[in-house]
Write a structure and sequence with these properties.
Layout: E1 3-10, E2 13-20, E3 23-25, H1 28-37, H2 47-70, H3 75-94, H4 97-111, H5 120-131, H6 137-149, E4 160-167, E5 169-170, E6 175-176
Antiparallel strand pairs: 1-2, 1-4, 2-3, 5-6
Length: 178
């Protein structure tokens, strides 16, 4: 098998996964390139190639789910989250004793955003909030709002492959290996 293009179901969500060579991806450029290659004449691939593609998709899916659950961050995202955590702690510690209980509850809601995997826009908003000079209750509410807007999705551990195209070398009679 030289590559594959697959439609994968995760509950109501549909993902197009593509791969050539050793890796699979959701990258639109790779998906487009392989979709263009799929415009040729259709033939039946070998069972071994279908099994190989299916196994690669299932392995990729397990890694994809694990990465998403871990909320993998880059170095910059980790620095921003660390700075925000320190700012929240400083805000609570510096508050008058009689307001700390109420402020601690709001801070706990704001801290939730630090544990979530976020999209690019939300990460950018976190970076903006980390740079703000006014760190107060409204700032905490803005952090909590990011967390509240983020839908919590639980990916299924087993994806359903709805459709799959397997790419193989063609010798005019059947799929061949290079």
């Amino acid at each position: 098998m030289d590559g594959c293009l697959a439609l994968v179901a995760d509950g109501d969500e549909r993902l197009v996964v593509a791969g050539e060579g050793s890796g699979l991806t959701l990258d639109p450029g790779v998906v487009t390139r392989l979709a263009t290659l799929a415009s040729g004449a259709a033939t039946m691939p070998r069972e071994a190639d279908v099994a190989c593609c299916t196994e690669r998709l299932e392995r990729w899916w397990r890694h994809h789910v694990a990465r998403e659950q871990l909320g993998r961050l880059g170095a910059q995202g980790s620095l921003v989250r660390g700075k925000i955590a320190a700012l929240i702690s400083g805000l609570v510690a510096g508050a008058p004793r009689h307001t700390r209980t109420a402020l601690a509850a709001r801070a706990a809601m704001a801290r939730q955003v630090l544990r979530l995997p976020l999209g690019v826009g939300a990460e950018r908003r976190l970076a903006e909030l980390a740079q703000q000079s006014a760190v107060d209750e409204q700032w905490l509410d803005q952090l909590a709002e990011i967390a509240a807007k983020r839908p919590v999705r639980r990916r299924q551990h087993d994806a359903t492959i709805l459709a799959m195209i397997v790419f193989c070398q063609w010798d005019g009679q059947g799929a061949t290996r290079p």
